[in-house]
Amino acid sequence: MKYVVSIVFFLLFSHLLVQAQDYTWFNPAENSSFQILSQGWSTNDLKNPYDRLPSSAEGKVREAVWNLSRHAAGITIRFASDAPGIKVRYQVSGNVQMPHMPATGVSGVDLYMKSNETNGQLWCKGGYSFKDTIVYTFDELNSIWNAKNSQKEYELYLPLYNHVEWMEIGIPEGYEINAVQPVNTKPVVVYGTSIAQGACASRPGMAWTSILQRKIERPVINLAFSGNGRLEPELIDYISEIEASAYILDCLPNLTSEKLYPEDELKKRIRRSVNTLKEKRPNTPILLVQHAGYSDAVTRKSRYDTVERINAVLKEMYHTFLSEGMKDVFFLSKDEINMCMDCTVDGTHQNDLGMQLYGNAYGKKVSEILEER
Questions:
Q1: Are residues 289 and 165 in the same domain?
Q2: Strand order across the beta sheet in which 246-250 lies
Q3: I need a surface site. Which of 93, 197, 236, 325 has the fewest CB within 10 A?
Q4: What pLDDT, in 10s, does the model give residues 39-82?
């Protein structure tokens, strides 16, 4: 009995020592060892370091779009460290979770590791505490290929559906944070709806834009706005400011109302968006994306008819652009995305399975487009 008590005491004491270990904290927005990735504008152009549109957009885009642009969806922070553990602490300004989307996706972070021995990025499990200040703790950061405490590269995905007020990244004293080689490849820019923003991934790394970023190994800028991806000229103008390797227009899920967006209006918005991007960035590919469909479309014919109507319009416009001799316009069909009955949480918004199918389809199509360049 004394032996068992001694072991329990030792384990508790060891745990307390780990918990009491002093950490050195860094503000990634103010430290050059961190690279904030997947943003279209420099920090100086932003109201907050983790915003997605520049401060000049306030008052120019609709208020709903501006508010959503302050969510950190798709933004990642890159750095290197030899630390055996990493902590992230931060505060958000909105609701921590939603009825159909967990706190880990709405307000959580996600850490991925890469080293010389790994093939691609490895997900790091983190413990979390969702209080006034959210804290994520990543322990035992050594892969099966790495020597313990060797230098490793990290990419931290920020919350999908919340505004980050401030953030600090901490490591145990005696270890280092170092800069990684900057990413200089042109990004892929996505203009979309709630699904592209990340609804309803269980964690930020499972949003399809995050999956795509890992697949093509270049930044993916998430300019998707929940319920507000409407092919609006103000947004297209801002998007055209970004020198991209490709533009993705995936806004059909927010243009389903036949009353608000009859065929002529839908064609007008598609035409105007593509023409504007081509005028300002004539050599940048544009990918037009069909609505992936609803999980309940087979039991609710009205939903099926809605998707068929708007997808037919987009397909017609795509072929019209080709017939006019427009170059570098591409098309991703509903069939290529290949969504399934069990791929959503509510018939509309993708769960992790649905996000993976999106990521696979986009990864294949975007890789083909970039290979042609």
A1: no
A2: 220-224, 188-192, 246-250, 286-289, 329-332
A3: 325
A4: 999 999 999 999 999 999 999 999 999 999 999 999 999 999 99
